[in-house]
Amino acid sequence: MTLKHEFFNQAMRAQEYRRTAWVVSAFSRIYEGPDDWKQDPYPYRIVQTPTATYYVNPENTTQLIQIDDAPVGEAPFQFEEKVYIKAGEIPNLHEDITTTYGNLLYNWLCIVYAFGSKIDYIRGRVTPGQIEKMVLERYEDYPPEGVSKNPTAIYTDEWLRCANAHFHLENFSQLAVPAGSEKSMVTHPDMAKVRRQLYEENKDRLHDPAVIASIIAKLKALDKEWLKDDKDAMGFLIKNKSFETVRRKLYYTIGAEQGLEDGVAVKAIERPLVEGWDVSAFPELLNTARAGSFNRGAQTQLGGVEVKTLLRASSNIRVAGTDCGSRLGVEARLTNENSRYYVGHTVILEDGTEKLTKENIGSYLGKTVRVRSAMYCQFPKTGYCEVCIGDKLSLNPTGLFTAISQIGSTMLGIFMSAAHAKPLVVEHMDYMTSIR
Predict the structure, then answer these.
(1) Count of domains forming the chain
(2) Which of 15, 60, 320, 332 is the most exposed place for a label (fewest CB within 10 A)?
């Protein structure tokens, strides 16, 4: 007999994570005839019976071995089930940890399969952006023929394996992604009472979008309190849009909608959709749909026009020199969140300058510095120097116009998103860290 933890490791080392049928049988309850497994007795195939769980012996595929501690009548493994693993049990783990079978599967399938031990074990929820950042930091072009690869670098073939592995995860969405829960079909029982109280307390200020945003924030907090222990609900309500737009309109309050007119003042719409449309606010509700339809076409067109305008206006701009010697720059406060954007740029010091690198930027965190910028470049005519532009853009001396056109692309993205429902929130902005 074998313990389920030992069996899981054996199956992973045999790359059974690449076999959809194996993963499905590991994380769900399978009903099949007692001899069905004999039709395809692949190594480590899981065989669930009413009395025990077995797997096909990889050394003798006509024989079954019992998984001693596997549950009966339910899936052998759960994605959130805790498991203790030691360093080295998976190639990219260098310390003993308690993790989950879901994380373990992800690391074998998407990290170890693609990169081996180059990227350390990843715990918790992971986003594509996190993986892309790890890859970009270590990505290198293939070396010339006859030159050995850098053992710590990441190459194109490895990145493609990683991408394909992530696409493979779609096969398991029905296992790992909950579609809803009983609690998520409703909201906190005090929601209507609290909403009416908040609107009454602020009845003389309901034209102010900041007041409406404050009311929505308090109602959202009440809804999250209702759902905080519901793992199924919080397993798919992972985006702010789920609370700030979808559940807000359905359960909290419509709040205030963006119509066709510009301006600051709004009309508050208290009643959520679950209580039916507020007929007295019918024009505002319809104008939101009209504005969304209009913005999808007219403002998206405007964003596209701006991209083309910027491309034409900046087509002759290029990097034409090494260093203009400017002592002017943009003030910026470096933090953990924004520091990566400044790597490759140059800070102005009292006794000279210093280029920011991954190695030295840590010494500037929390400090306000002056950064050389194209805004103050003193190179003549339409050119810029490498120092003011920074390392990334200077790698393509004649391609600056594509970077400048991103301003229009950003506008295009804003206009396109404005065609959909937008949350009404109040945010604190520290301009010294936000403007870069």
Answers:
(1) 3
(2) 60
